[in-house]
Amino acid sequence: MKILVVGNGGREHTIAWSLLRSPNVEAVYCTPGNGGTATMANCFNLDIAVDDFQAIAKAVKEQDISLVVVGPELPLSLGITDYLQQHNIDDERGSRLGSISNRRIAVFGPEQAGAQLESSKSWAKDLMNEAQIPTAKSATFTDATSAKTYIQEQGAPIVVKADSLAAGKGVIVAMTTEEAIAAVDSLLAQGFTTLVIEEFLAGEEASVLAITDGQTIRPLIPSQDHKRIGEGDTGKNTGGMGTYAPAPIVTPELMERVQKEVLEPTIAVLKRRGINYRGVVYAGLMISPTGEPKVLEFNCRFGDPETQVVLPLLDTPLDELLIACTQQKLAQQPPIKWKSGSAVCVVAASGGYPDAYEKGKAIAGIESATAQGAIVFHAGTTLKDGQLVTSGGRVLGITALGENLQDAIAKVYPAVESISFEGMYYRRDIAHRAL
Ligand code: AMP
Ligand code: GLY
What we know:
Elements: E1 2-7, H1 10-19, E2 27-32, H2 35-38, E3 43-45, H3 53-62, E4 67-70, H4 73-77, H5 80-87, H6 91-96, E5 106-108, H7 112-119, H8 121-131, E6 138-141, H9 144-154, E7 158-162, E8 171-174, H10 177-189, E9 195-199, E10 204-212, E11 217-219, E12 224-225, E13 228-230, E14 234-237, E15 242-245, H11 252-272, E16 279-287, E17 293-299, H12 307-310, H13 318-326, E18 342-349, H14 366-371, E19 375-378, E20 381-384, E21 387-390, E22 394-402, H15 405-417
Parallel strand pairs: 1-2, 1-4, 2-3, 4-5
Antiparallel strand pairs: 6-9, 7-8, 7-9, 10-11, 10-16, 12-15, 13-14, 15-18, 16-17, 18-22, 19-22, 20-21
Bound molecules: adenosine monophosphate and glycine (GLY).
């Protein structure tokens, strides 16, 4: 079977890597992919942008693709799944490959309506309220005056969010009402028309990614991201500087509650709204000091860099799970199998990230890291005249597996240290908070 993965980050390299470990997967095509997918055996990059649906649909036909896995939220929110299903009508291949009806290509990733779980925070809040999912109290505003009145009434700390996709830059956790009011002006000035203002929640964050076929929903192992650039969780927000899994804070009892109080109600309301969701539901949780889980946000795709620790621990072939979702046969799948032990991923970033940084720096030492047993997932890399060079803020995600977290930490850092490029930066405290 041939599979097409849409996207070019560390998450997509990891998805491609995981798929290629299955004996059923002969090749993976990435649109557009990165330096890591370009250099992995049986993996091929196609120079097509993630929002060029027409070219992706053409590639699906030309390469005889059985399954499309969509990595990032942008194409999902623009309706890539709806588009591919409408433009890849192929009875014979459709039925062989287990698409939804036998007239559609199998796509793992929700349709535009379901992607609103991530693309509109007010829509997601509305769904959570309807499903009675525990979450921060919130209100939605389209004008500055009523937003500011609400902030004055509620007091600080308070959180101001842009309703729509904002590439991680749309959330301001304000410690004072003045800061919150300034955030309202700043987000409206940037062109965001709808704001969600919500109660500040204290606690520890965790990510629970679950896969669903629209009827059944099954969680993957819980993980934790480190979103701040600096050690000790200080400094600016980033796309994620490192992850570990399983996250001990999410105990089996808590996971059971998340399943019953968050994941199943989400699917029930999606169904009630007529949305046939086949993909990932990513619940970003805040676990209160007393152990109560509340949803901070939903994403409609795999997390990055959560995927870099979750999939290496997966023992069930990934293609089986994703196809079961597209065929609406997840309930018939045996329980998902996991390797024992833990995984830690450390992100190596370009100096200056998340602000301005230089690109085009030659990367050395990947072979040495791999020889030590680490898995090097590429995020912002490209192949230039046969040489791997940096091409983004987050450059690599170096993952190591270990018997436990301590062991995985002890294995990952020597591997990270054997890699170098000019200006390379990484946090030295990934996963330490869980020890
Ligand atoms: P989001 O994009 O909604 O996940 O928000 C980005 C980050 O802002 C989260 O990972 C949290 O660290 C923080 N955050 C979001 N909402 C809240 C909240 N209600 N209370 C406290 N922190 C929050
Ligand atoms: N790691 C955070 C995210 O994928 O949204």
